[in-house]
TrEMBL record:
Residues 16-151 form the YutG/PgpA domain. Its main location: membrane. The chain crosses the membrane at residues 27-49, 56-76, 88-114, 135-158. Its cofactor is Mg(2+). This is Phosphatidylglycerophosphatase A. Pathway: Phospholipid metabolism; phosphatidylglycerol biosynthesis; phosphatidylglycerol from CDP-diacylglycerol: step 2/2. It is found in: Cell inner membrane. InterPro entries: PgpA, PgpA-like_sf, YutG/PgpA.
Amino acid sequence: MSRLVHKPSQRLGHVLALSFGAGLSPVWPGTVGAIVGLVLAAGLAMLSVPLQIAGLAALFFVGVWASGVVATATGTEDPQIVVIDESFGAAAVVLALPAEPLWWIAGFIAFRAFDILKPFPVNWVQDRVKGGTGIMLDDAAAALYAILVLAPIAWVLAG
């Protein structure tokens, strides 16, 4: 990969797309990338909700650019080493849930399940939207599924 990365902006794109190296994990890189998302969410959780949303939006758009850089450099539509999409998705889900360990575990598991199983329209997005936008959008759709399943349960249980 080193010979594919020449410009500083390309190097930065690789570092970000791989969630600071999580994408190089020899075992379950997507899950490791999602764990990075939990760390990011823990940092964002200390901020107001508008700032959390702004942080997630920034992460999404940075992810579109960075994953596009790696996809172009590798000639692959959705390189396995790109895990910023999983980092974004996991962070988005847990920030939509109560800030309690059990809810975050449930959110993490639900997100990974929807990301792996790719029910419609997640699979449609993955198959039809190309480039960095497609890489990020299918995980955003999986995150939305997880939020739609868990947020109402959290709301009912809260009382």
